[in-house]
Design goal:
Mean pLDDT: 80
Strand content: under 5%
Order of helices and strands: HHEHEHHHHHHHHH
Distance between the termini: 42 Å
Number of helices: 12
Number of domains: 3
CATH class of the largest domain: Alpha Beta
Largest sheet: 2 strands, parallel
CATH architecture of the largest domain: 3-Layer(aba) Sandwich
Number of strands: 2
CATH topology of the largest domain: Rossmann fold
Low-confidence stretches: 104-118
Strand order of the largest sheet: 1-2
């Protein structure tokens, strides 16, 4: 959280400090009032900093109606997302909305412990790597999977992969890379269009396995154009949905509907 009294040391550039603070933030809250959206106010400069970091405000910028403001006077960038209009306590409702936008484990009680060894071993990806390596070692000892790296009496490529893969997963997981990707993808995965695409792709895969729909891309025993299209459509829908394009179109529709319903003066 950025507080101007604590984070703006005397003698330094005001603009640069504010812009750096916005660049380092995960969520930007804009309190909408008639004054804050008035031309020439510094609040609009801060909003410009936010636009430089996030071309699309979805998932990062939270406009809050702190005081009733004519909708026409609100900057289009803020109107690209749904504006929070608190019904009760503005602080509590804003904090709750921020919690839903923040990546898991950032600024919450769910943050990983700071002890290096304990932090690494508590990551699910590291635990999965350890279990996978143990299982691979058991299978190699039983002669079910060959030994790795050309060693032993029965060295095989599968044995090498069975050893390298869990080690790589554990090593990458220890850096927190998987959790960082999961945190960034968390909001994407919650988008209805992405969820619908995942379900659609799963259904198509089942139908292809049952040979009801042909296989895609000329692969398999019965490749068909329908099979290719049936695979491409949910993938394309999910990819477009992940960018927030469908939500942006929905927001535009909501704004147009509001304008249509607004009483004419």
């Amino acid at each position: 959280m950025f507080l101007d009294r604590d984070d703006l040391p005397p003698g330094q550039s005001y603009d640069q400090q504010i812009e750096r603070a916005v660049a380092d933030s995960d969520v930007f809250i804009f309190l909408v009032t008639p004054e804050s959206v008035t031309k020439g106010r510094y609040t609009l400069t801060e909003l410009t900093f936010a636009r430089r970091k996030w071309r699309y405000p979805h998932g990062h910028v939270l406009p809050v109606m702190a005081r009733k403001t004519p909708f026409d006077e609100i900057p289009p960038y803020l109107k690209a997302v749904i504006i929070l209009e608190p019904l009760g306590n503005i602080t509590a409702e804003t904090a709750a909305q921020v919690d839903s936008l923040m990546p898991l484990g950032v600024g919450t009680s769910e943050t990983m412990p700071t002890t290096p060894g304990r932090s690494a071993l508590s990551r699910p990806s590291v635990q999965l790597g350890v279990v996978g390596l143990a299982l691979s070692t058991i299978l190699q000892a039983l002669g079910i999977v060959g030994t790795p790296f050309g060693m032993g009496q029965n060295p095989t490529d599968i044995g090498t992969l069975a050893t390298v893969v869990p080690i790589a997963i554990g090593a990458i997981g220890a850096t927190g890379a998987f959790e960082a990707l999961a945190n960034r993808g968390r909001r994407v995965g919650l988008r209805p269009s992405v969820q619908l695409s995942v379900v659609g792709l799963a259904v198509i895969t089942i139908l292809q396995t049952l040979d009801i729909v042909g296989t895609p891309f000329g692969m398999g025993a019965r490749p068909t154009e329908i099979g290719t299209y049936a695979t491409l459509v949910p993938i394309a829908t999910g990819a477009i949905g992940a960018t927030g394009a469908f939500e942006a179109l929905a927001n535009i529709g909501v704004r147009l509907l509001r304008e249509f319903r607004r009483p004419k003066t």
